[in-house]
């Protein structure tokens, strides 16, 4: 009987093995591996100073990241440049490790002239892409540290009417590089109706200026209704109206992060008071992986494609230049460029003109002194084969000798007349030859 049961067991296991190959455990394998490796996430905060960026970060992650912070005074802010400050914390929750990096941008929008003050932010994002691109193309690809910025919380002032020109310019400059999540800061300074109007206005302006902010992925059709509703609420809340607080308040027996005012209490995590919970859930619980995916698959891919395009263009240009050199070397064995032949021809023409004018001078000297120049200088035909500089010496010699031979006053007058006509001509010719 016992033997029979044993056989049944063996047959049963064999049947089960046929149907169960084992790849269903893949998610578990991936899970185990990624948990072991840990996760990384990088958030950037941008916006004018004093909007509550550091307070919100501390509230989001229940830490105090800005203990040693030094706020510059008005004088220091006049010419302040934008700094990039990096804070990294490791958080562990239920055995899952997260290396969280916060990139702060103190000084943004603080100076008198804020032209291109978003440039350091843009450069920082590009540098992280560049580093990742280098690491990815390097030899050791196993331990690449991902420092790419996955999300940028852009803080908009609750005061004023919608976006400021600086907000528009900055968001437009960053839109192709990072997932922008706009937030209305210090929402407790606005009434419920004001918050609603502000959100509408900002959404309208974002559309009007063609700013690409982070787009939440579409819900799958097979998702349950509750999930779909939550997703819609999230999409309708953009820009998130947030409140931050570094202090714990105790009221009616329970403790919470809040702000105490003479007229009442503001609870940071109360959905009726702010969108803080929505933002935190979105960043931490529901969309962290999607933010990372969009960064990798869209923003980084754009950067990478641009890089490869530039590199290919450079290589093609280099090759073209090299083949041109090789071709020209084959075509012209002598190192003579086409332009040189033309220059040579012009020089030859000028030489001819100068030679002609010297011959005229020699003839006029002959006539004035009634002595053939050829008697004491080289024959004229020989002179014409000389270079202009040699011709000049020849004429000078001829003139100095003939000067002493001129005796009659008539001859002197003729010589003077001839010289006043031809010397300017010679000078003009020499000048033209020189230029
Ligand atoms: P940052 O310069 O943008 O980092 O701004 P801080 O976090 O240093 O905040 C500047 C001031 O605003 C501080 O006095 C904060 O207490 C205050 N603050 C921060 N968050 C809020 C908020 O949500 N509402 C209100 N009313 N004040 C806030």
Automatic annotation (TrEMBL):
One of its GO terms (cellular component) is cytoplasm. GO terms for molecular function: GTP binding. GO terms for biological process: cell division. Keywords: Cell cycle, Cell division, Cytoplasm, GTP-binding, Nucleotide-binding. The keyword Transit peptide does not apply. It holds the Pfam family Septin. Its main location: cytoplasm. Residues 37-310 form the Septin-type G domain. It is found in: Cytoplasm. This is Septin 4a. The keyword Cytoplasm applies. Belongs to the TRAFAC class TrmE-Era-EngA-EngB-Septin-like GTPase superfamily. Septin GTPase family.
